[in-house]
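Convert to structure. Protein one:
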Amino acid sequence: MQYIPLRSNYKVGTRQSELALIQTESVIGQLKKFYPHVEYEVIKIKTIGDKNLLTPLANIGDKGLFTKELEIELNQKNIDFVVHSLKDVPSTTLPPNMVIGAILERADPRDAVIIAPWRQEKSLHELPAGSAIGTSSTRRIAQLKLSYPKLTYKNIRGNMNTRWEKLSNPELGYDAMIVAVAGFQRLNWADRISEIIEPDRVLYAIGQGALGIECRHDDNDTIRMLSVLNHEPTVVCCVAERAFLRRIEGGCSIPNAVRTEYNGTGLTVNGILLNLDGSRYVKDQIENSNLTISMTTPIPSFLVSQTDDDLLLTDNDTQTHRINRKRKRAESNDDDTLLPQPETTAPISSPSATIETSPLLRHFAHVCCVNINETILENAELCGTNLAVKLMQMGAGSILEEIRQNVPIIPIQQ
């Protein structure tokens, strides 16, 4: 039976760019098909990332560059939910009481090459040595340098419209730029795409191509209302990807990428972590042929470290509000051995914890989907976490340390 929303009006937060507004209106249009009598008011909000167009993303860090101001309004209950490009939503952590309440069907997750309109070439291979490729993504730069070492890579910031204007101005010196295919498709600019880069050359960003809707964790009404939008294959893939990124502790300054495939039963996750110039990297994959089998039954192929602080509570579909679920990581290196997950994990209790009578819905890598089997989501999360652990065993830790020593984080004026 379809859920009946408790309110007749919801306020929807969004960034102000043309693409953000198109995505938000698309989500509202889909909701109206299920709830024709509910009204949705769009609230436009400018983020730090929209205001600062000069600092490279790698120098800003993974601190909610495109989400912070929206989350402040959400926390203050000035809006009820926010439509995001999921790749913009940090995977390492979300503010207290924030979750992803729905993930819609993923568009094309690949990257695209946009050749400057004043050039005749049609692909990266055709561009002469020294050509300037516009991108602020360390993920794209590190992987592209492996295949196109003779090209140069130049910071380009701004929304899609701004970047297109920069590319079209010969005086700015961009010969091409790299963007997400999905963004250009949603803007009806597919005819401007010169080349699509296949994942065997450049793996894509966590959540790329998917729309995620952020809301308050204690707002069960909104979470259940949004649940009609969940696309199970996309949710499963994105939970695994976000768990991978959270465990690897990646962000805008860390070149990391994935390729995830889910066939309705089994899941395969490919992941890579590189240093900034692509000269060092670790890459591997992990599979689970049947996500419906509960991990409480030991399966040697898919084991996760007991000391990993990403493990979830298993307290009968709910998590208690404001209980501190984080566990301190062991002082010794816990990435040397993969250990089985305990069959059950008792909810953490604390005399100082504030417990409310209304239980919170369980989440997986900050994704809360009430209409998808929890065993499937739990196993997807474990796949992502275990892939990250494998990469750490292969030397990801030294690559991460190298990056952090070489990328200064510049404080952003708000």
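Protein two, convert as well:
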Amino acid sequence: MKLELKPDTSHLESLCLMSDLTQDLENKRIASVVAGHPLDTVKTRLQAGQGYGNTFKCVLTVYRNESLAGFFKGMSFPLASVGIYSSVVFGVFSNTQRFLSQVRHGDPAAAPSLADMTLASLVAGFISVGIGTPVELVKIRLQMQTQPYNKANVKLDSTVPGSPVYRGPIHCLRTILQKEGIAGVYRGNVAMLLRDVPGYCAYFIPYAMFCDWITPDGSIAPHPFSIWVAGGVAGAVSWAVCTPMDVVKSRIQADGVYSNQYKGTLDCMLQSYQKEGLKCCQEDQKVSHLPEPDQQCGVGEGSAALTEDSHPAPTATAVDTWSVEDSENCTSSIKSKDYFIIKSFTVD
């Protein structure tokens, strides 16, 4: 009897699969930014601009004056940072949840309580501000620059709203640092904190509850349609909560280029309310309630938001997987875990 030994290459196959899945996730994130940025531009113009009226009029005005390129202004920074941002925020959320489960139940894989999910959402929202504020600031400054940066336009009075000030995202960031320092880079961070902290709670908790509700008992994974529906519902709820402070954040971050209208978050809120009443909080409701893949509230990352057993979310360098073994046939396979579901949780 001749015994032939063959090298075990299963780990190489797993690495190849993980690489393919990672690339697929990155492609989805990039696609979500490209698809959603025109909506984000319209939202920003309605929130911080003047004379646009309604969503339809804003779309026509941008297209007539700036062509299709006008809808994609300021996209490069979100495009470059979406992978890092999503990985950090969802990683913080899941790891905080696992830590709380370990402390409270002695098992990091235990079903999280509603209080644990809330606290994990608050931590994720707080961390997101440190990464997201500079990206949002540069994006909004470029979105509000309605005229192209060239020699003819650069001679215009820079106090005229929309006149060119920045050549691009790097020049924008460098100019803000030179004129306003680090404090200028984090302009609007208080408003963003007041937006993201409750916003993540309003996203993660409805997402988990709705997914748990529509996923049959005993299912190893939810149906993709269930993930899509849960993400859409959670996104709508989240943006309904976020919109008022998102308006304030956009106005503060757009301010300071052509004039200094607001002294701070509270002043912006008071001025907006005195001039427009509660209508100021509804400037972009129709646009925001679309499943816009904006970085800040995770709407576009709904399929990669939560894990069944609270494992960290996949990052740009690694994708979590399940190893499924067949004891009868002595075979195994790797299944992607590129989405994130909390199958059940407890209420304190």
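The beta strands are 321-326, 331-336. Residues 10-48 form the longest helix (39 residues).
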